[in-house]
Amino acid sequence: MRVAAVQFAAGEDIPANLATCLRMIDAAAAEGAELIVLPEFCNHLSWYDAKVTAHRLACRLDDAFLGAIAERAVRHGAHVKVNVTLAREGGRTTGTSLLYGPDGALLGASDKLTLMGAEGDHLDPGQEAGPVIGTPLGRIGLYACMEGVTSDVCRDLTVRGAQLLLNSLNSFATDEASLHIPVRAAENKVWVVAANKVGPLLPEALLPAIGERLGVPPEWLHGAGESQIVAPDGTVVAKGPRTGEAVVVADIDVSAADAKERPDGTHILRARRPALYRPITSRPRERTAPPGADSATVAVVTGGDPLALTASAAGAGADLIVLPEDAFGGSDHAEVAAALAAALAGTEAHAVTSAGGSGLLVGARGLAGVQKKLHGTGDPGDGVRIFELPWGRLAIVVGDDAIHPETFRLAAIADADAVAVPFTPAEAWETALGLPERSAENRLNVVAAGPGTGLVLDLTSDFTLWTAWNGPFTGRISHPLVTVADGDLTFGKIHPAQAVNRHVSKNTDLVNGRAWHALTALSKDGLSA
Q1: With 60 as the cut, is the pLDDT of residue 47 above it?
Q2: Separation CA 347–CA 326 (nearest Å)
Q3: Mean local confidence (pLDDT), 314-330
Q4: Is the pLDDT of residue 529 over 60?
Q5: From 80, 88, 174, 338, which residue has the greatest number of CB atoms within 10 Å?
Q6: Which of 407, 440, 441, 409 minimizes the C-alpha distance to 423?
Q7: Helix, strand, coil tally for the chain in percent (to 5)
Q8: Fold exhibited by the domain 2-274
Q9: What contacts 56, CB < 8 A, 6 or more positions away?
Q10: What distance in Å separates the CA atoms of residue 422 and residue 411, rounded to the nearest whole number?
Q11: Under the phi-then-psi rule, with left for phi > 0, alpha for psi from -120 to 50, and beta for the rest, what region is 49?
């Protein structure tokens, strides 16, 4: 079928916004789209002087605005997803995604669970998970903007059977298009159709004052565009421009989302261990661990003589050295630990590799800790361990555990500052999208090493909106600084203390702000169709 993501600007004039929505639906239908996705907050800018104003200006399910959207769906015989603020009973106002069928019927509604920044001043978060909607086009899940900046909501929809995820955005962040949108397709092996705004996202007269308060140039407070359609392997098959209206179309085969196997035959959803994920669906607690060190020197070994390179890195002052999984081929923990300890002699460095399905943390005095692999056959572990090191709190993610977003979520909930990943990537998305996203969505420094590949993902202090930035604003908000291994031994820096700050914006905590009460499918056994 043909799908479309349309991008456009919406202001404070509600009738004008409706006219734009209808015009863009017509344009997408003229391209032959059977499914059309519109951006977030199509009815009004996400900016109000009071909650009562937001409620007054919000749509009602039976009003003329949504009636006109439904009529357009009928006119074109298309499915249409629109996102608006919606007045609910009891004075609540939600940001809600609505899917209309080709007969004009409302097929499903999903209230935004995770609000971003000032949205929380005027809107109310959703109270339950949105539905997976069965349609002739496939099983569809709805989400919006901030819900896609972390993995939980999209994972929950996928576990409940969604093949096609529709994302409506109201974002000026450029790392939406480069990272957060495509990774949701790849990590879940589903299709994603994402429509973002262009134009000012706040009242134009207020842009200079708001920009000054944010430390963000006013010209950056415009929708970042780049609406896109992403295949289940993470390939962006169609993408819109950074600025300006656009209709982004692609012909897709929804059944491609039914293939959940990795190249080695592992089914990415059946390999999950829901019982381990209960902390994700439990009430959050505040971090109790103190901040780690301001910085630490790390190294990744991706080839060559692992012992000689470990000794070289330790001698050069590395605090942490990560080697590929099974770097020494054997499964004898004691033998591997003894060899690494000898290479680390006379230093305070620690090295991480794996043997026999377990991650090994080794110092100059020998084996300092073991993290069993959590997913797969054999004798899997029963949780993520945290190791206290002089510079901070370290978690170890072993091998295929790295493809499961839940593993890193558990590390963040356990107050890790950094994660060492000895692994062997099997698909391109794992390093291009997966590990950068694990760092970004959880505020974790990540040091990963595999055969011929390695990454150092460093948390930057320029992260929280509503506070001044140290450097120039580049449009990237949560994306870590990336060092890609360029030889057998590569050095980098991480900043453990930055893991304490998880507030991407006012009232928006990436870890403790998760919609834990609405994510129950994540920790339940079994999968939906």
Answers
A1: yes
A2: 23
A3: 95
A4: no
A5: 80
A6: 407
A7: 30, 25, 45
A8: Nitrilase/N-carbamoyl-D-aminoacid amidohydrolase (3.60.110)
A9: none
A10: 15
A11: alpha
